[in-house]
Amino acid sequence: MSEPHIATHEVSLYASARKIYPRSVSGVFARWRWALVWITQIVFYGMPWLEWGQRQAVVFDLGARRFYIFGLVLYPQDFIYMTGLLVISALSLFLFTALAGRLWCGYACPQTVYTEIFLWIERKVEGDRSARMRLDNAAFSLEKFVKKWFKHLLWIMFAMWTGFTFVGYFTPIRELGMEFLQTRMSSWEVFWVFFYGFATYGNAGFMREQVCKYMCPYARFQSAMFDRDTMIVSYDPGRGEPRGARARLADHRAQGLGKCVDCTLCVQVCPTGIDIRDGLQYECIGCGACADVCDTVMDKLAYPRGLVRYTTQNGMTRGWTRAQMLRRTLRPRVLVYTAVLLAVSLVVAFGLALRTPFKVDVVRDRASLARIVDGGRIENVYRLQIMNATEAVQRYRIEASGIAGLAVHSDASAEVGPAESRWVALRLQIPFDAMPPGSHPVRIDVGQADGDAHVSEKSVFIVPR
Amino acid sequence: MSDFTSSFWSGYVALLTIVGIVGCLVLLWVTARKKVIGQADNTTGHVWDEDLREMNNPLPIWWVGLFIITIVFAAVYLVFYPGLGSRDGSLGWSSAAQHKAELEQARSELEPLYQRFAAMPVEQVAGDAQGMAIGERLFMNNCAQCHGSDARGSKGFPNLADADWLHGGSPEKITETITRGRNGNMPPMAAAVGTPEDVKNVAHYVLSLSGSPHDSLRASLGKSKFGACAACHGIDGKGNQTLGAPNLTDGIWLHGWGENAIVNMVTQGKVNQMPAQEDKLTPAQIHVLAAYVWGLSNKPARAAP
Description:
heterodimer; A: alpha+beta; Immunoglobulin-like; 5-stranded antiparallel β-sheet; 4-stranded antiparallel β-sheet; 18 strands; 42% helix; 21% strand; elongated; B: mainly alpha; Cytochrome Bc1 Complex, Chain D, domain 2; 3 domains; two-stranded antiparallel ribbon
């Protein structure tokens, strides 16, 4: 293959970011995005204020290593549920992406959500796209100064509130509020309020699409989950080309033009600054802003909607109807993702529902292997760590089995305070000649004194030579 | 710094650090100024496997800004904190000092909790549920390694849950033992006792004191040789708590039971140590701990109404 001749020019190794001024947009996808902004943010900002009994409903006490989620008390040992949650999140991402592309990116990702909120503030203070561009290009003036500072003030206040809410998941938020009013927040709390606030301010105010383009790994592996039946925001070149300006009532067919009037509104509304008419690009976060704005243009010209629309690659090239495309959602990839997602969700849900409200660790005592006590009985000492995962004082009975004559010789019941973990010394004895020298498996069974839940742990009983 | 046998290695590491940082800065400077030939179609001009072209995706310039921030951070860090060879930072920070400060802080935070117990006598703390819960935790963390989680000890480590005490079981003595530690010293006594045969006889006499199985002939022969032992263990063998000499007439054998164990003890002696805890625990903690240990073998006093 011969090398085609391509014009060359000198370029830098680094690209300077071009500031993007997304034009405001309204339409069905914009409404969906705002609905999700409200839902996610009401949950995020509201959750720490909910009370559950005598405490905050959701609070992660890192100091005491207890994680409270409504009625649940989780220990660090429960990290498996976190793993389950992450697996569910990942599978959901796969499923949604296979179905309709970057739904997460376009509607629910915090980067999108906070950028949307920050853009809204920016628009309220500085005006829409053209006003903002004018303001940025204008020479320094009092108006520019006031507008810029007012915008940053609002941004910073919002960002600090976000940081405060974030820390409120780790320090009870009402307590944190009191600490703030009395200026006695700990240095780590101050650090995290500022750090999270600064990250929100920087990412949603300045970095915006740069985060998606250069930092987010998801943008780069999405294509692995796309196929020819994935619904993606696409421009229909068959309908739109050749693009060109025309008089409102002119017959575009007679002029040899397609439906695209080349108004470039789709480029102006794009939060990542791309042209959807160039086809699928890794920068596209699938927000549907271009589809929304194009529909308004098509309406004005009385053209059919959907020059830019959610469609599949198959649908576009083969001219499928909506129903034909929808039928293809029941393809193996989607079914497998759904089945695995359902299975994992059920396992996690059942695991949580059936979990015993306490945990037990059995550790053989490190000080002595075995000892001979009164009457020549052989004694082994164990330490039980009993972790109470309820918020009431619990009494547990301790039993042991596995060797004939094996008996508990220390207190056979133990009381553990609410959400506390306690080390309990356990002494087991067997008659002198019940077992030959060596190590013998035993089971230590700990059960609720007034309940059915019990935990059985394996250990060994050692008979000395 | 003792890790380095000479200051050469410290200088060597410091030089490597500085060369590394300056090298990064030079690399950034050179690449930021460098221009390359770009193609009009925004590819790098590289072609593989006949038709695979590499797009030109330049790093954003703010990334260079972040890189410069890390370099500035490194420089500032090296001025204030240790990191450049064996140089201490100008803030004088060290992990040991931080640990100490955190320990101090934890102690001052816990002090109000212990204050309630400091005013109570040991006997009363032993009857206090919260006091015993704290005592149990202190015991599990500081004492259980040797004395066992159940405080019943093992060979060489005394049982703290019975009524037998080497150095006394009064609250004051227990507090003293925990605070200052104890040194148990049984000197090798074979020469003072006599021939190996005499030692064996003494061993049987000692066994007879507690009614343990023994050879009565040897025991009667050994009785006259027990004088060497009586200086510490007493004429009647009941021991002496001021010296830490154990009672030989009870059935408790800290270092093993039977002829062999006793003969070994007499010929070789034994040095045993309970380490002092005053550097690890505060007096208030020791007070609560003493109450826990005392409570293991005594009935606690009722709290004053």
